[in-house]
Amino acid sequence: MLRKNKRLIFKYFLHLINGAFLVSFFIIIYYFVVSTDENNHFTVYIFRILIGTGSAILLLCLLGYLGIHNEIRWLLILYAVLLMWAVGVQVVLSTLIFAKKEEVHQAWHNKIDSIISEYGSEDFPQDIPKWMILNALQKTFQCCGRKNYTDWTKNKNKENSEQVPCSCTNSTLRKWFCDEPLNATYLQGCENKINTWYHANALTLIGINFGLLVSEYMGYTVEQPDGDLSRLINPIGARTLKLFTHRRSQLEAISLDQPGWSL
Question: How does it sit in the membrane (predicted)?
Fold first, then answer.
């Protein structure tokens, strides 16, 4: 095996080790969070996303490693396609979020208002995961409603108009609505809380996105050192180039002074 290919396989092997440690780290933290604070659904949800992201990165590196080590053409093509797809999705989503900021905000407002109106309804059992996420947001950020706690007056599924979701209070009861006094209810809306959190962590989020793009670009450049993998992915072109080079060297070896070459 060529020394370049050995170095390339070693790089992918390091990627696999790093990815495995990354996933293991998030899994350990996830179980630690669940065991210490199982009511913090939002944190658990975030760590599930992180574990899924780490697993996807690990799988992508594994595809590249197997494709190079075993010289499997279709696996390398799949790896390149998935890598370009991941980069494209990140770029498109980032561009849409910044270019369509107002539309995104309006869609967010409409979605939250719709969830608040249908929250706790027996007619929409399929929306329970959305209600759980809303509960997690309200519990984590200690907020209530989108603008403030009065947004819950739009909900018609309460037993009485004074009720608010248990996630809007310090209550540990596992039900949709609770009867709690106003001084035990979170009064501030979640929109302001989330905006404050976003502005405080915007640079971190941009850094994470930029870091992922850089790592994917490096993976793409590592994939094709000196054209070795390009020739592996396109063996027909490689054989044609090799044949052309061989014929050219043969022609150059023939002296033009030999009989039959005089002008």
Answer: Multi-pass membrane protein
Domain that includes residue 12, residue range = 1-71
What is the signed CA dihedral for 162, 163, 167, 173, rounded to 10 degrees?
130
Is 113 exposed, middle or buried (CB count within 10 Å of its CB: 0-12, 13-18, 19+)?
A: middle
Whether residues 124 and 67 fall in one domain: no
**185 bridge partner residues:** 169
Task: Give this prediction's pTM.
Answer: 0.48
Structure tokens at 260: 């039959």
Question: Is 142 in the same domain as 216?
Answer: yes
Indicate whether 40 and 92 sit together in one domain.
Answer: no
Residue 160 is part of a domain; what is its CATH number? 1.10.1450.10
Length of the chain: 263
Tokens coding 18: 């790093």
DSSP result, 146-206 = SSBGGGGGG---SSSTT-EEGGGBS----SSEE---GGGB--B-HHHHHHHHHHHHHHHHH
Residue linked to tokens 């027996």:
122
Looking up tokens 């995961």, which residue turns up? 129
Shared domain for 66 and 90, answered yes or no, is no
Instruction: Please count the structural domains in the chain.
Output: 2
Tens-digit pLDDT profile for residues 52-109: 666 676 677 677 667 666 667 777 777 777 777 776 776 776 677 666 667 767 777 7
253 occurs within a structural domain: no
Chain centroid to CA 135: how far? 23
pLDDT digits (tens, 9 = 90+) for 10-59: 565 656 555 565 556 556 555 555 554 545 555 566 666 666 666 676 67
